[in-house]
Each structure stands twice: as structure tokens, then as C-alpha cells.
Specification:
The protein is of the alpha/beta class and 320 residues long. The protein contains nine helices and 13 strands. The strands form three sheets. Strands 1, 2, 3, 4, 5, 6, 12 and 13 form an eight-stranded mixed beta sheet that branches. The longest helix is centred in the first third of the chain and has 21 residues. N,N-dimethyl-L-histidine binds next to β11. N,N-dimethyl-L-histidine (AVI) binds next to β11. Pfam families: Methyltransf_33. One of its GO terms (biological process) is methylation. GO terms for molecular function: methyltransferase activity. This is Dimethylhistidine N-methyltransferase.
Length: 320
């Protein structure tokens, strides 16, 4: 059986338990409390995120899938024969299969992800289904330039779906696009999925669903601190909030303290006033022109923008 081993890149910045502890202590000690969104995705958080992707209110996943299915042929045509597909984050197997099925004899699939377990699972599943494909998982931080291994093939095609770029600040997003261009090299393409700016009610509903799955996803961060840092957060004493910040053009998720309270975690105590929040996530929403401008500032040319009939979501085809 195929048993890929991660060809380890330098893999700097992989958050281990010590970094989680340090970030939680720093974030909860700050005058405006924060916890980084990257910590949502432990096993339970990843399971909840998968459920979010299927919620009626959460339009991005199904809308992007529709666009990818519709345009996969055009992407494949532009990519040409024997392309190497490089995915930033080993995300959804469903999405990458759409591209792999459309591409003309793809030479290689190179997923880059910080979570080795998740990466190996994805790599194994794809290697099984595409025996002719060279599957080369890389463990590492894809927000920084990665040295791609020498792999035969023609054009290099990057893939960054899901509007994960929206979880970066605009300046982080620009930096990511620069680093991705350096990783992929001259002549590369990048297929980038971005959630677009729209009606506030629609946006807020997508982050505060009726079933409460997004609330559970947000609160799981406190449960994770309880599990891993011996915390005593009472989850009933915090509320999920998701609001669109018009000025910054982003959905902000917060956990709102329902009372004055003192919580213990990581051998520290943290005081919360009633109504005080922990800011847990930003999800930026862009106009199409803003994405093209961001891409341009990072040295990319926007060749195509594909959207759905309601212009909820954009798939951008960039070239270096
Ligand atoms: C992963 N990321 C693109 C999601 C988003 O929409 O920003 C994370 C998420 N947070 C709440 N719901 C989904």
C-alpha cells in the first residue's frame, strides 16, 4: 500500500502545545482579549467546521463547488497537459478532485499543510484514487515561501479555495500572495476562492446559523482550553456573536462574557466583565476589484473572475 511520508520542509511556526499556551495567556491578558482563529481546528473543531460547510446559511462552500464544477474545463484548458497542482492547505478532497478530474494527465498533487495527520490522510486517499499521480505532501506553513521538490511536469497551478484568504488581514493576504508567487514560480497559475461582499443580513446569518453549529464551533475554543490547558471556562457563561464590521469589511466572531467572572486556565486567572468579548476570528469580504488590486500589488495578473448568478462568491484565475 502507498504510504507517503511528509518530505519535511523547514516547517517553521508549527504551533505546538507550548505556543498554544503562550498565545492563550497573551491573548486573554491583553486589554482587548483575542484568541487566534487557527486554534479552532482541533479534531472537534474540524468536525464542526465540516458541518458548517453543509449548513443552509453557509453559502460559500456549495457556491464555490458549483463554480469549480462549471469552470473546471476552462481551468484545465489554461493549465495544459501534465500540470502540477499545489494546494495551500489540504482542504476539501471534494474540491481538489474536481480539478484533478478535469486536468489533462496531471503530473503531481502537492498539498502543503501544517497538520501532518490531516495531510497524510488526504494524500493517502488521493493516491489511492489517482494511481498515475505523484502525490507529494509537504508539512509546513503555507503562508511562507516553500521550496517545492523537483517534480517532472509542465505548468504549476496553485489552488487556495474556501476563502481561507479572508481569514488573513489584507496585508497578510498580500504577503501570502507574494510568498505563493515565489513558491509557485514564473509562469504559474493560481486558482483562488474568495467570498464577496454582500448584504449584511446574509453575511451575518452565514456566521450565526439557526442550528447553532457556528456557535458551537466558536465555543469549542474555550472547551479546547479546558481540555488542553486545564481551564475551567463555563461554556454556558459565554455567548457566540458574529457581526459585520462595515468599516473593515469583515465578519468578526466574538465570545461574549454573559457575566462578571473569573476564569482559570494555563495556571493563570483571567477576569471578564459582563459584556466583555474575546475576539476569535475575522473573515474579510472583498469586492472583485479589491481582489484584483490585492493580486496586482502582489505581482499577479487577474486573468478571469468567475462568480455565481448572485455574485456571492468569486473564483479568481491569476497568473504570475
Ligand atoms: C475557514 N474560513 C474560510 C471560514 C470563514 O468563513 O471564514 C471559517 C468559519 N468561521 C465561521 N464559519 C466558518
Amino acid at each position: 500500500p502507498y504510504n507517503p511520508t511528509a518530505r519535511d520542509t523547514a516547517a517553521p511556526g508549527i504551533p505546538g502545545p507550548a505556543e498554544f499556551r503562550a498565545d492563550v495567556v497573551a491573548g486573554l491578558s491583553a486589554p482587548r482579549k483575542t484568541l487566534a482563529a487557527k486554534y479552532f481546528y482541533d479534531a472537534e473543531g474540524s468536525r464542526l467546521f465540516d458541518r458548517i460547510c453543509g449548513l443552509p446559511e453557509y453559502y460559500p462552500t456549495r457556491t464555490e463547488l458549483d463554480i469549480l464544477r462549471r469552470e473546471a474545463g476552462a481551468i484545465a484548458h489554461r493549465a495544459g497537459k501534465n500540470a502540477r497542482l499545489v494546494e495551500f492547505g489540504a482542504g476539501s478532497l471534494v474540491k481538489v478532485r474536481i480539478l484533478l478530474d478535469a486536468l489533462d494527465l496531471p503530473a503531481a498533487y502537492v498539498p502543503i499543510d501544517i497538520s501532518a495527520d490531516h495531510l497524510m490522510e488526504a494524500a493517502q486517499a488521493l493516491a489511492r484514487d489517482y494511481p498515475a499521480l505523484d502525490v507529494v505532501p509537504l508539512v509546513g506553513d503555507f503562508t511562507r515561501r516553500v521550496a517545492l521538490p523537483q517534480i517532472d511536469g509542465q505548468r504549476t497551478v496553485g489552488f487556495f479555495p474556501g476563502s481561507t484568504i479572508g481569514n488573513f488581514t489584507p496585508s497578510e493576504a498580500r504577503r501570502f500572495l507574494v510568498e505563493a508567487r515565489l513558491t509557485l514560480g514564473t509562469g504559474a497559475l493560481l486558482v483562488l476562492g474568495v467570498d464577496l461582499k454582500k448584504d449584511v443580513r446574509r453575511l451575518e446569518a452565514a456566521y450565526d446559523d439557526a442550528e447553532g453549529v457556528t456557535a458551537a464551533f466558536n465555543l469549542n475554543l474555550l472547551a479546547r482550553i479546558n481540555r488542553e490547558l486545564d481551564g475551567n471556562f463555563d461554556l454556558d457563561r459565554f455567548a457566540h456573536a458574529a457581526l459585520f464590521n462595515e468599516e473593515e469589511s469583515r465578519i468578526e466572531m466574538h465570545l461574549v462574557s454573559r457575566a462578571d467572572q473569573i476564569v482559570r486556565a494555563a495556571d493563570r486567572t483571567f477576569r471578564f466583565a459582563a459584556g466583555e468579548t474575546i475576539h476569535t476570528e475575522n473573515s474579510y469580504k472583498y469586492a472583485s476589484e479589491d481582489v484584483a488590486e490585492l493580486a496586482r500589488a502582489a505581482g499577479w495578473h487577474t486573468e478571469q473572475v468567475w462568480t455565481d448568478a448572485q455574485t456571492l462568491f468569486g473564483v479568481f484565475l491569476l497568473s504570475a
